[in-house]
Amino acid sequence: MNETKQVDSLNAIAEVEAERASAKTRPAIVTVRVSAGPYFAIASVLTFSSALLLRSESYGWSLLVIAFAWSVVPFLALTDRIAFDGQRLRRQGPICFVLKLFRIYCKELAVEDFETVETSAVRTLRRGGSVRYRYRTQINGKGKQFVIASGGSSYRRLVRELFPLIHEDKLDNRSRDLRDYLNDPRFVNQKTHLTQLAPERVLDLAKSGFKLGGKQNERQERPAAEVSPQEAERAHLLRRLGNELRVSGRLREAGEAFRRALNVTPRGAWLIYDFARLLRSQASANSDARLLSRARAALRLACARAGDDLVLLPLIGESLLECGDARQARIVLQKTVDMDRDNYKARLGLADLALREGKLAHVIHHYHEAARVSSEQALIRYARREAEYYGRLNDDEEYLATELRRINWLQTVTRVRRLSARVTNAAVLVALAGGYVDVTLGSVGWSGASSSLIIWILTLLGTRMLFERSKPRSMA
After folding, report:
1. What strands, in cross-sheet order, belong to the sheet with 130-141?
2. Is the pLDDT of residue 219 over 80?
3. N vs C: which end of the chain shows fewer Cβ within 10 Å?
């Protein structure tokens, strides 16, 4: 009997190993390139090292280093990719292949193990009423992190394939926008043409003073019963088009689409919320405090019109936090919790607000409640880990002092790293230009660049180390 159980156990283990092997060999649905920033930094450091070798008359080594920097490193950057096979993310490329030869496996993460998905947007170019966005998505789970940068159709395809599989509570507002509204620019252009929006050059000359509410809009507002199904459908299509234009950076055209939709259904809470996010994007692009104030007012109006919509209210609270209105965000999130004590996103929002105010006891309470109300194991694991961390900070003064020192060191090292990068660039310019004026000036420039570059590398390594939370001392 014992032998039978042992055989069954071995068969079960073999089946699990077979499933893992099949998962590792599952073909990728879509792959995206890893951000080339680290590789570009390595190539720059190697180029500088090659210049120093050239100055010391080590011509062979200098040629070898420069060849490696601009042939091998770009090849690695192009072939280092993040693959998604329908169930998990994983790294693949020559580096991972070499690591596997030494029984070192590249990191991978299943979709159900995602804990947070956060997307940030960086404006790379602004022209008139349009901006060019570059998105950076960071996925965390089980102590692993994947960073995916936009840059073409592969990123859009990854968003379409991956994001709908992720639990709603794991996505932040911008990731949710990308999931719902990121589209191919050609399709957006076709929809804009069919909708007959005014050209961008015309909108740039027009006034962008459309306001929600007000006496004029109240006089023109029609009861919902008088809106025909065709008009309601057109307003829905205009709202979706406005969001697609906003995500793609065509803010002025997005404003025109929302204006037309609001003329038909001015009381729609979701429509007002989306319009408020557009105002937030315009305020950020133009550094306009007036538009930011209008975005806050639109979010407050969306909250008033949302009623008991427990999906929309936490999103409004998160957007209010992005707009810097912490007081109103607390009101909205607390309203959500009062109506539904099992709302995970509202609990996390309240924990964030309590942390900003330094109320660690409230932070711990809200994270414990978030862990209690969630049904996702990854979310429960994340909330419990955060609750334990802040609970340790609250109970252990020595650990709190250690973490404060770590954060202070991290801030200092970050400032030194940025300063050393600027000094390196300036010193390289002095070395290159000073060599034609005076040999001594060129030598001083090369010496300063070398010293500041070494400091930059050390502070970069220090930053990576200081990002990790300190481990508590085990009790004897």
Report:
1. 116-127, 130-141, 144-149
2. no
3. C
